[in-house]
Amino acid sequence: MNDEKLGLDTRVTHSGRSPRQHFGMVNTPVYRASTILFPNLAALDAKEGAKLRYGRRGTPTTHALEDAICALEGGDRALLAPSGVSALSTVLMSYAEPGAHFLVSDSSYGPTRKFCEFTLRKFGIDTTYYDPAIGAGIAELIRPETRLIWMESPGSQTFEVQDIAAIAGAARARGVTTAIDNTWSGGYFSQPIAHGVDISVQAGTKYISGHSDLMLGTIACSAAQYDRLRETYLRFGICISSDDAYLALRGLRTLGVRMRQHHTSGIEVANWLLQQPEVLRVMHPALPQDPGHDLWKTYFTGASGLFGFVMKSVDRDALARMFDGFSLFGMGSSWGGFESLIVPSNPAVYRTATEWNPGGQTVRIHVGLEDPADLMDELRRGFERLTA
């Protein structure tokens, strides 16, 4: 189901489900398969055009998730990968050719940069990192050999919001493909394809899963980009298990409810942090004082629970006193689950086109589904330990 006349919550609830095709079962069952048998030689000879032909190429369960991702992101087609990094690497490789040039936002996720620097460079692809605030000025960086412009909005760790329609428009005028990491919005609060972007990538590990127990990458795209992406996808043998697809579909059904709670709680905690003497700056684009707020209002209908803040400079021992005493906030990679997380970060190590020098310790925080009052109380006690 991808009826644009229906509300997003309705589409997310009903897409990728066909109870009548599965004996009335509300959820598409788990179809585990490698070999798929054909009833006769004619069917075997025609397998090239068959939707079901081999487990690696998809099952009814994975196809159901593809349909649901299209409904969520507003894409014509979708592909599924075993992780977010696998998804972004598939997109980057699809446009890699000797002598090609890529433009990548300087605020992009670390593994995106590393794939460009350590893998694509071996194939003769040149990458230029650009200021995420460049907007339509990206046109000045486009070369005849530019094949892909990569965006991430808000930016990883530092949360700059990009003018994606302006960048997509400049790229389209020069025949350049655009792709974006849309994980922060969960695909729920922003649909970049509707603003002219060709490809939207997510780490479905995060909000689509929602339960911190699943690895998944998703690629939603326009019909014009699908064959090129699919070719790379097939050549690398990329696929996901039907069990993981089932879990992702299960998480997807509650995406809207969870995202609205992340939005409300995240803003409440962010506003509280603004008032703390230990905090120099809060990086949350939904706050009116954030430099990206106007663009956020243009491209987003809400905010996820992930944002950042900068504390006054402290030594590592003081930081350990603060962080080691948390019980509701966990320390670990990823985010997007029901639980809250907090980690110190150093975005400066990923910057080349812009400088990150905030004057203190950068922290990344994910506000989960706990009571915000409890989270703020835990942070308050953390600041007390910090300054003890």
Automatic annotation (TrEMBL):
It is an enzyme of class 4 (lyase). Gene3D superfamilies: Aspartate Aminotransferase, domain 1 (3.90.1150.10), Type I PLP-dependent aspartate aminotransferase-like (Major domain) (3.40.640.10). It comes from Paracoccus pacificus. The keyword Lyase applies. Its EC number is 4.4.1.13. PANTHER family: CYSTATHIONINE BETA-LYASE-RELATED. It catalyses: L,L-cystathionine + H2O = L-homocysteine + pyruvate + NH4(+); an S-substituted L-cysteine + H2O = a thiol + pyruvate + NH4(+). The keyword S-adenosyl-L-methionine does not apply. Pathway: Amino-acid biosynthesis; L-methionine biosynthesis via de novo pathway; L-homocysteine from L-cystathionine: step 1/1. Belongs to the trans-sulfuration enzymes family. Its cofactor is pyridoxal 5'-phosphate. Keywords: Lyase, Pyridoxal phosphate. PROSITE patterns: CYS_MET_METAB_PP (PS00868). One of its GO terms (molecular function) is cysteine-S-conjugate beta-lyase activity. This is Cystathionine beta-lyase.
